[in-house]
């Protein structure tokens, strides 16, 4: 490539960094809101992709495990500036919330916050936000009796079955049911302009599965806390469908029983994560900081996002064929319904059981839910209101 081409690629990378950093500083509201921000900035204003290609990319990332909005951003970066563009797009979108949550962790470390009123208020904020996510996702992903049934069954199994791989087995079963009940008709649009070879894609997918299998096997003999931390967050990032709030039960299962983070600190950080822009998966940065300082924060962040990279890079070259399959469409319908059920289970345990302890707690949760769902106030306002409400209730 000549000098002009190098300069052109460099300019494209700087452009991707600037736009993604802007989005990382301003994109409040969770994964669904992020997709709206992306559409407005990348598609409507800059026209980096056509409408149909963007819709197909979103569909792919919703099908893959991991943080869907981050994966969409990575995909757009790849389309605009190649593999490095995908990394730059992720870095710009993610870095602001990583820094904010790391600072929050530093403030909390060494403090006795278990009985603080504002901490209890943040727990109640988490109840309201996840309740809103359950309702919003349920309206979209469980529109008929069959999918409502799948969602409720998934919630029942998630609450009663706490094995490490329970969630992925529940989703696999739901995908099988959806395969038979909801085969759709293929509706193929123009191919996505992806310049990743199938050889590179296969290597990424092979590395994804290799790490998923080998890391737990090597963990007992590793003898290092960093290895165990990376394994826990890599698995969490690999096995969660739906992204965002759905990762909550997986992370709680990994870090609280191990003694890395107390339940109080876990829920406080989850509440604080609602107040910052960018992907909710950066909650892992906070948890890693609480568990092992700056080193732990870096390990946790890389661990939870690495599967997103490997899966997007591995799937993009094959998606033009897969997305036209009615079998894939049917399985995805069942999986999405089960995601709603798993999120409903997480709303009860650990959120409701830890935060709603008396009538006043329920009253505050109801007020915050109305502010979020009906008044459409931004999440950072809900966080501030929840923290203030927790302090006020402590004084009553």
Automatic annotation (TrEMBL):
The chain crosses the membrane at residues 87-108, 120-138, 150-180, 200-218, 267-287, 299-319, 331-348, 355-374. Belongs to the chromate ion transporter (CHR) (TC 2.A.51) family. InterPro entries: Chr_Tranpt_l_chain (IPR014047), Chromate_transpt (IPR003370). The keyword Transmembrane helix applies. It comes from the Bacteria. Keywords: Cell membrane, Membrane, Transmembrane, Transmembrane helix. This is ChrA protein. One of its GO terms (molecular function) is chromate transmembrane transporter activity. It is a multi-pass membrane protein. GO terms for cellular component: plasma membrane. It is found in: Cell membrane. NCBIfam families: 2A51.
């Amino acid at each position: 490539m000549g000098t002009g081409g190098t300069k052109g690629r460099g300019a494209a990378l700087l452009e991707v960094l600037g736009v993604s950093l802007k989005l990382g500083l301003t994109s409040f509201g969770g994964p669904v809101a992020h997709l709206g921000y992306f559409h407005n900035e990348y598609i409507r204003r800059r026209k980096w992709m056509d409408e149909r290609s963007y819709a197909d990319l979103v569909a792919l990332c919703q099908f893959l495990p991991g943080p869907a909005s981050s994966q969409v951003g990575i995909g757009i970066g790849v389309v605009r500036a190649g593999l490095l563009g995908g990394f730059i797009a992720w870095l710009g979108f993610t870095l602001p919330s990583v820094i904010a949550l790391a600072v929050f962790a530093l403030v909390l470390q060494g403090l006795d916050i278990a009985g603080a009123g504002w901490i209890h208020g943040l727990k109640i904020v988490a109840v309201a936000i996840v309740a809103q996510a359950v309702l919003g996702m349920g309206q979209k992903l469980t529109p008929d009796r069959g999918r409502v049934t799948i969602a409720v069954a998934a919630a029942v199994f998630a609450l009663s079955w706490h094995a490490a791989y329970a969630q992925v087995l529940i989703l696999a079963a739901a995908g099988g049911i959806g395969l038979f009940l909801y085969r759709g008709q293929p509706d193929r649009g123009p191919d996505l302009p992806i310049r990743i070879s199938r050889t590179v894609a296969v290597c990424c997918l092979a590395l994804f599965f290799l790490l998923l299998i080998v890391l737990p096997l090597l963990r007992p003999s590793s003898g290092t806390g960093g290895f165990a931390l990376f394994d826990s967050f890599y698995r969490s990032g690999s096995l969660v469908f739906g992204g965002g709030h759905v990762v909550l039960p997986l992370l709680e299962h990994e870090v609280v029983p191990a003694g890395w983070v107390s339940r109080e600190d876990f829920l406080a950080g989850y509440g604080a994560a609602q107040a910052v822009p960018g992907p909710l998966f950066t909650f892992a940065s906070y948890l890693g900081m609480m568990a092992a300082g700056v080193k732990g924060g870096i390990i946790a962040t890389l661990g939870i996002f690495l599967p997103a990279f490997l899966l997007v890079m591995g799937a993009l070259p094959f998606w033009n064929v897969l997305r036209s399959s009615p079998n894939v469409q049917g399985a995805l319908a069942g999986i999405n319904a089960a995601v709603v059920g798993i999120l409903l289970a997480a709303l009860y345990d650990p959120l409701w059981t830890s935060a709603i302890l008396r009538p006043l707690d329920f009253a505050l949760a109801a007020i915050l839910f109305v502010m979020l769902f009906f008044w459409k106030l931004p999440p950072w306002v809900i966080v501030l209101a929840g923290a203030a409400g927790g302090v006020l209730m402590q004084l009553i």
